[in-house]
């Protein structure tokens, strides 16, 4: 039986056709999304149709089920007719930072963490809706329903039926959902929207059959409930207790499977649900893979060239530290920050040191995130490194020393789309548990590499010097 998994993430849509019995990927395709932190969802649909069309054309049979994993938190506001009211504001759009601060001021971080699992930052959907209500009231008046990116793409696959739906994983990133009760908090949404009460999608179980596809090429396929991209990656990897994932895509996301919901009032760890009915505490930065591509551009090289240069420099980059807040930052909560390179001298300002400082700066943020998860009681047995930038040799070589634990690199694959495919197979089977597909990879033991301690100390000192934290 063949199933289709879709990853509608920040930079692109990926489609994988997977053999549901073996977990083997039999066809795949990708289509780009436009740049920017506000995007017309029509661009996601165009990319989805293109990637699905190409993948399905290579598939050796009929697609029985499909699911969508999508970038989390994006605000997709629809009017009475189901048309988008304005371009979606994405998770990495920081304009709603003042609304996040207002919400926290009004309710207190402790209360919000215990009610919603989150302390608001500009990424979360609720702050974007509050921004809309305050800045575009005429648009806010037209909002009849709010969806998340994966909800919207799944709804298009089904031919835009009357019913809309979502899952608990992606719902837990809105700020108007309770991970402890598993229900929406419509009063939070109404308050953020100045008393307006848009409809919310129906919350479905992780293995629900949500709808039936109408898209030519996959007509009649069961549509699974879908989920957020990080929840889909966790499902695709089949995590064991103590497995911490560091996902280096547009965002740097660090997460671990958990049996209980979390409520971190510091706001560093977001208390999300996963895509199996359990939980996924997660720390997310705005700056990951693009730190490397921007640095490669400055150095006049490509990503392989950047990796080669970085590996020619010594740990510590000759005294350079890069605070990589190129898009502002979410963790730490510095929405207006810019990047800073500290420690420059005539002697150390080499392409090799700059390249290594970019890799170290990106990974130091991830190492801080692993510590934050540990601080909430999470067991850290090993790190699994995934996402586009995990393909970099320099990243693979430098990560174990900075993280201070063994790093496992699952074979390069689209784990979000694979998790979505697994969810589709689960929904189609009606089984109690998702299928167990093998994931191959290579281990990079930390050994006696202690160079990371000094690198992280220099990075922390630079952050303290520049941002006082
Ligand atoms: N070999 C590599 N080295 C470093 N970065 C890479 C490499 N291959 C891909 N990337 C980066 O990975 C990013 C895409 O990763 P992906 O996980 O697909 O992101 P997203 O899910 O946010 O769309 C791009 O920014 C790309 O430049
Ligand atoms: O905001 C978060 C998680 O809270 C991001 O992880 C988004 O879900 C986007 O992911 P990528 O496109 O970078 O994979």
TrEMBL record:
Chain segments carrying region Disordered: 428-448
The residues the record assigns to binding substrate are 72-73
Query: Top EC class per UniProt?
Result: transferase
- In what residue span(s) does the Carbohydrate kinase FGGY N-terminal domain sit? 3-236
Instruction: Cite the entry's keywords alphabetically.
Output: ATP-binding, Carbohydrate metabolism, Kinase, Nucleotide-binding, Transferase, Xylose metabolism
Residues the UniProt record annotates as site (Important for activity): 7
Which reaction does this chain catalyze?
Answer: D-xylulose + ATP = D-xylulose 5-phosphate + ADP + H(+)
Query: What EC number(s) does the entry state?
Result: 2.7.1.17
Q: Does the keyword ATP-binding apply?
A: yes
Q: Which InterPro entries match?
A: ATPase_NBD, Carb_kinase_FGGY, Carb_kinase_FGGY_CS, FGGY_C, FGGY_Carb_Kinase, FGGY_N, Xylulokinase
NCBIfam families reported in the protein's UniProt record? XylB
Q: What does this protein do?
A: Catalyzes the phosphorylation of D-xylulose to D-xylulose 5-phosphate.
What is this protein called in UniProt? Xylulose kinase
Question: Quick one: which gene encodes this?
Answer: xylB
